[in-house]
Structures are given as C-alpha cells and as structure tokens.
Design brief:
With 205 residues, this protein is α+β, with helices and mostly antiparallel strands. It has a 4-stranded antiparallel beta sheet, with helices on both faces. It is globular. The N terminus and C terminus are likely disordered.
C-alpha cells in the first residue's frame, strides 16, 4: 500500500499497524526529515533529519517498525527492538529494549500522538521480554529531555554517535514485566494506543 505523508485531519481517529512490504520507505523517510527539521535548524543534526531511504530501510531491519495512520495518511512512526544490541562501551545494561525514529508529522504536534507512540514502544518492549527501555537524545535538546523525564526516564550516562554533531544523554526507564501487570495496567496501556489523540499533550515528539 502506498502511504501518503501529506496533511491529515487531526480530529480523526489514528490507528497503528506494522510497516509492511507494500509501504513506501521513501515516504517514511520524508516524514522523518520533516519531523526532525526543527532540531536540524537549531543546529542539532539528528541522523533522522538527513538519512537516505537506504539508511531508513537499514534501520527498519533492526526492529519492528510501527506506523500511525489517519484515514490512510501517514502521521507518525516508531521502530522498536528488544532485547537491543548496543555498541561496546554504551552506558546501558544488557538485555534492555530500545526504540528510535519516533516521529510525528509536524501538523499533528500537540495532539498527544507522541505519547501514544511512546506507549506503543514501551508496550512492545515488554511484550518482547525486556523490562527496561533505553534511548538517547541530544543533551542540548532540553525540551525533549524534559519530555522523557516527565514520563519516567532517568539519565544513566552519555554517548557520542559518529553520525551526529552532539553529545547524547542516555536515558532509561524500568518497565513492569508483562506478567506482573494488573488487568487495569494492561487496559490503560491498550487505551493509550487505541483512543483518539489527546490534544492536552503539547509536545510533538
């Protein structure tokens, strides 16, 4: 299926599904470029702000890619892996899960879609058997760092990727294993993924 990344109506219900073989890597790459353009303009060169479609395909191959669709229009994405392999020296415990390419169409910022993509990523990490979510983001992007801190992430170290121009802060969140979650917690996680977007979340992650 050809997924169109043009503007969507934020009042419609957003649905999530796996990225499929008939979907367009080129259009997904364009979404990433748009989503990270503000960071690049501020001098923080995320790899997602300039990566090629070939780079996108390679990164997709490392995990599960999920897309957020609004009336067949692509409005968000995240890629998840657990357990996730990290480079030697990366300041994180073994066995944790991770996610990357978390992106929201700029026209959808402030709708809560970033929160729902985060909930989806954390849910998939626990379903795949990991109890920790580990990510990194630019230390200078204080709004982004604060967004994660408010959602239970804590700094555990720093890292420098050779495809970026900044030092990253490594963040970790302990996740309850799937077997220890109460029925209420499972229903709450599911509702974050299924419900219409919440406009009270002002951060367009």
């Amino acid at each position: 299926m050809n997924i169109n990344s043009t503007e969507a109506n934020p009042s419609e219900t957003v649905q999530f599904r796996r990225f499929g073989g008939g979907d367009s890597v080129e259009q997904l790459t364009c979404l990433l470029h748009r989503a990270y353009a503000d960071h690049a303009a501020a001098g923080r060169v995320f790899f997602a702000s300039y990566q090629s479609p070939q780079d996108t395909q390679h990164r997709l191959s490392k995990g599960e890619c999920w897309v957020a669709m609004n009336r067949n229009v692509l409005v968000g994405t995240v890629t998840v892996s657990a357990p996730h392999t990290t480079p030697a020296g990366y300041p994180a415990p073994a066995g944790g899960g991770s996610f990357w390419q978390l992106a929201v169409e700029p026209s959808q910022r402030g709708t809560g879609l970033g929160q729902r993509l985060l909930a989806l990523a954390e849910s998939r990490i626990t379903a795949l058997g990991s109890t920790q979510a580990i990510i990194d983001t630019p230390s200078q992007a204080t709004d982004l760092v604060d967004w994660y801190l408010r959602r239970g992430y804590a700094p555990i170290g720093t890292w420098r990727w050779d495809v970026t121009n900044y030092d990253s802060i490594v963040l970790m969140k302990n996740l309850p294993p799937m077997t220890s979650r109460s029925p209420g917690q499972v229903r709450e996680a599911a509702s974050l993924i299924r419900r219409p977007v919440d406009r009270t979340d002002a951060f367009g992650q």
